[in-house]
Write a sequence for this structure.
């Protein structure tokens, strides 16, 4: 239901369902991920980062979660950590074009 509400543009009500999902099953990575992405859209980068990080800890073999956390970290000035997660995404999916582009951009900033 949270995803449906989010897709309809109702991020505030979606958050309630995502929070409930995390509360009921805190070790479910998609619940953590969905809550994190929704909090990011609501303008709560601290909360978003915590839940995105937890999602990756729970499911490190998901290249999309690794990528999204890497993008988040890059956007918030954590280029070293961002590069680690983007490299992890590429290790899991070498054909992940967006991850390659983002990693190249992060590494260009370090030069």
């Amino acid at each position: 239901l949270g995803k449906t509400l989010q897709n309809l543009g109702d991020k505030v009500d979606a958050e309630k369902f995502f929070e409930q999902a995390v509360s009921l099953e805190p070790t479910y990575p998609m619940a953590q991920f969905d809550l994190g992405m929704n909090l990011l859209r609501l303008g709560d980068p601290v909360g978003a980062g915590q839940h995105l990080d937890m999602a990756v800890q729970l499911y490190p073999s998901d290249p999309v979660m690794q990528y999204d956390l890497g993008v988040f970290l890059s956007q918030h000035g954590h280029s070293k950590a961002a590069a680690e997660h983007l490299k992890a995404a590429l290790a899991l999916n070498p054909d992940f074009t967006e991850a390659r582009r983002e990693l190249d951009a992060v590494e260009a900033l370090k030069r």
